[in-house]
Design goal:
151 residues; alpha/beta; 7 strands; 21% strand
């Protein structure tokens, strides 16, 4: 798994509207919070996405973009984003290449680890959190990013 200080691999993946999203292009506007999650519509993943949604105003005010990645289809991401009014891109990693590049593939290639990375405009991992089963660590991570960026 990538560590703080590592270079974040660039990628281009389709979002819930089937529009290509490239990390390096998003970083031109400011930092990116990139989070990996196992599946749309599961209880923990829904709570996590809604926590990012609820913080999106504060993050947006600080020019911090949010991108979510999982191996579910564009259609699944669209339904998930629509149902929970998610104001950020959910990216479809069909072959799990980006998931592997970030080292968040599950044991024996099954599933996806729940991990969140803060990537600075120089495309470096500035901070990260990994908590496979609990959203609280990710919510705390968001709160700390907002506090530090706003200080």
């Amino acid at each position: 798994m990538l560590r703080i200080g590592d270079q974040a691999p660039d990628f281009e993946l389709p979002d819930q509207d089937n529009t290509p999203v490239r990390l390096s292009e998003r970083l031109q506007a400011g930092p990116v919070i990139l989070y990996f999650y196992p599946a749309d519509f599961t209880p923990v993943c829904t709570a996590e996405a809604c926590a990012f949604r609820d913080a999106s105003g504060d993050l947006s005010a600080l020019n911090i973009d949010v991108l979510g990645i999982s191996p579910q289809s564009v259609e699944s991401h669209r339904r998930f984003a629509d149902r929970y009014e998610l104001p950020f891109a959910l990216l479809f990693d069909e072959g799990k290449q980006t998931i592997r590049d970030y080292g968040v593939d599950g044991p024996l290639g099954m599933g996806v680890r729940r991990a969140t990375f803060l990537i600075n405009p120089q495309q470096q991992i500035e901070n990260r959190v990994v908590a496979d089963f609990f959203v609280g660590s990710h919510v705390d991570f968001i709160r700390k990013v907002v506090e530090q960026a706003g200080a």
